[in-house]
């Protein structure tokens, strides 16, 4: 019984983390990178953003650095906590098909 409760807690909390990451993505990233990560948005095309559904040739540390500090035309999101940034990086990894 105890193991079942622990498993349920882990599953629910991991789902919550991705739900939060999905909300963060929708709030901060989707307007340029698209809901699906393809970059197929007006702003994404204008800025030439990468299609994360096809290629993700960057490390988690590199992605986290760009989210926190910006790069090129992408603005920095210094207000995000380290946990939020880590969740966003994990979320981006789920976009590759």
Layout of helices and strands:
Blueprint: H1 2-33, H2 42-47, H3 60-69, H4 82-95
Helix pairs in contact: 1-4, 3-4
Number of helices: 4
- Report the span from N to C terminus: 37 Å
Uncertain spans: 4-15
The helix fraction, in percent, is 55-70%
Main sheet specs? none
The coarse silhouette is globular
Overall average residue pLDDT:
86
Q: Which structural class is indicated by helix and strand composition?
A: mainly alpha
Tell me the number of strands. Answer: 0
Query: Which strand-content bin applies to the residues?
Result: under 5%
What is the rounded Rg?
15 Å
N-to-C order of helices and strands: HHHH
Give a verbal description of the structure.
- With 97 residues, the protein is mainly α.
- The chain is 64% helix and 0% strand.
- It has helices at residues 2-33, 42-47, 60-69, 82-95.
- The longest helix has 32 residues, at 2-33.
- The radius of gyration is 15 Å and the shape is globular.
- The model is unreliable at 4-15 (pLDDT under 50).
């Amino acid at each position: 019984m105890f193991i079942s409760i622990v498993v349920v807690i882990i599953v629910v909390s991991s789902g919550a983390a991705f739900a939060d990451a999905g909300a963060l993505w929708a709030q901060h990233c989707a307007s340029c990178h698209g809901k699906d990560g393809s970059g197929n948005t007006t702003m994404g095309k204008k800025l030439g953003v990468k299609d994360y559904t096809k290629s993700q040739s960057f490390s988690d540390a590199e992605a986290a650095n760009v989210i926190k500090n910006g790069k090129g035309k992408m603005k920095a999101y210094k207000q995000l906590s380290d946990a939020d940034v880590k969740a966003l990086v994990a979320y981006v990894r789920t976009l590759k098909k």
